[in-house]
Backbone:
């Protein structure tokens, strides 16, 4: 295992828990979305508005490919990355993929209506995306309940789960 890749819906806590997990393991942390923003010089919202979602998805795959050559890394993905079959295949290489599973009510309460997440602007669209993506997230190696507990606790839950992992398992459900 060379990388841990955190997947899950917007608001699952990937970017918050990721650095804590990396610190716990003595690994580095990389968040894919800020890398895309830095490369483009535009925010995610600006990228969606000015270049379109397809461009953004291509950038997600490009950064995932860059990271596939690195070791000792915890990677936070954007909520749509693992739902894309091509990007998913890249993310899975030499990695343990962890789904931070949350209920819809949990993510709703965590996502501010500040326009920073274009696909969360419309709550009905968000609900259908949530339902559509579940079958993709299930393809993760490990599922961790991320509904409750502070981020440090969720990070410890993941560390415990992946230490015995390699195969899919449910943790603390
Ligand atoms: C998206 C999730 C966002 C970001 C973009 C698209 C999605 O990341 O990549 O707004 O398709 O679910 P977070 O999951 O970090 O919010």
Residues:
């Amino acid at each position: 295992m060379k990388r841990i890749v955190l997947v899950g819906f917007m608001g699952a806590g990937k970017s918050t828990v990721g650095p804590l997990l990396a610190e716990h393991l003595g690994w580095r942390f990389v968040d894919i979305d800020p890398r895309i923003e830095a490369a483009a010089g535009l925010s995610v919202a600006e990228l969606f508005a000015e270049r379109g979602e397809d461009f953004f998805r291509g950038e997600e795959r490009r950064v995932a490919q860059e990271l596939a050559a690195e070791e000792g890394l915890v990677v936070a993905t954007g909520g749509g990355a693992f739902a894309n079959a091509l990007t998913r295949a890249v993310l899975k290489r030499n990695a343990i993929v962890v789904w931070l599973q949350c209920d819809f009510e949990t993510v709703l309460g965590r996502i501010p209506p500040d326009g920073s997440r274009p696909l969360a602007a419309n709550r009905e669209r968000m609900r259908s995306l949530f339902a559509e993506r579940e079958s993709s997230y299930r393809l993760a190696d490990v599922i961790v309940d991320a509904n409750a507990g502070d981020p440090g606790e969720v990070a410890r839950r993941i560390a415990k789960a992946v230490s015995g992992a390699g195969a899919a398992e449910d943790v603390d459900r």
About this structure: The radius of gyration is 15 Å.
